[in-house]
Q: What sequence folds into this?
């Protein structure tokens, strides 16, 4: 998955000569929390957030300030071909709510935390009717071939498999999401093969 497939291209932007009040009014009108600041040829000049603007609002009443005075001139950015995981890591590590997406210095999109959350929810199959099995296995051998074989033998269709954080000891937990199906026979077969089913759910 790459940013290109999940970024917003319906962009709300502003120019560097705009006032603090104009930018805040635009954010309120459009229900957004950040604005790209663009030059005449659509090049990205900077980035402002609602928090940035609230911080200088009083100062802007005492002296004439424009966005050029307060914008972040070198914001964290992504490109359309940036892996979604890399964009997510940047948002998390830098504690920002969105990234301008730039190609050849021009703004082509914005990717936000909501966009990335939507992508991963879709990827995990949470938007579709589904069933979920959480299984615990022990040992160093890769259990996935055996798990998938058992599921498929009972007509199960796997949507996604997540390896959950290791618990203490030598057991590992996998969360398997399937297209909605009756889990009873799958659970029975797994347990017959010594695979512990720690939880199951049909959504």
A:
């Amino acid at each position: 998955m790459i940013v290109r497939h999940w970024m917003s291209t319906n962009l709300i932007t502003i120019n560097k000569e705009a006032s603090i009040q104009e930018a805040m009014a635009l954010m309120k009108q459009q229900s957004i929390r950040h604005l790209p600041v663009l030059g005449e040829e659509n090049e990205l000049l900077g980035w402002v957030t609602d928090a940035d603007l609230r911080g200088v609002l009083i100062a802007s009443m005492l002296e004439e300030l424009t966005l050029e005075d307060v914008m972040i001139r070198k914001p964290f950015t992504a490109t359309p071909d940036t892996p979604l995981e890399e964009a997510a890591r940047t948002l998390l590590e830098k504690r920002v709510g969105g990234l301008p997406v730039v190609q050849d210095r021009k703004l082509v999109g914005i990717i936000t935390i909501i966009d990335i959350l939507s992508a991963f929810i879709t990827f995990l199959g949470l938007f579709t009717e589904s069933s979920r099995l959480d299984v615990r296995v022990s040992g160093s051998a890769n259990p996935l071939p055996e798990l998938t074989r058992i599921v498929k033998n009972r007509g199960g269709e796997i949507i996604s498999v997540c390896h959950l954080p290791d618990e203490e000891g030598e057991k590992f937990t996998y969360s398997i999401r399937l297209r909605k199906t009756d889990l009873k026979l799958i659970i029975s077969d797994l347990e017959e093969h010594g695979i512990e089913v720690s939880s199951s759910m049909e959504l």
Remarks:
- The chain has two domains: 3-120, 128-202.
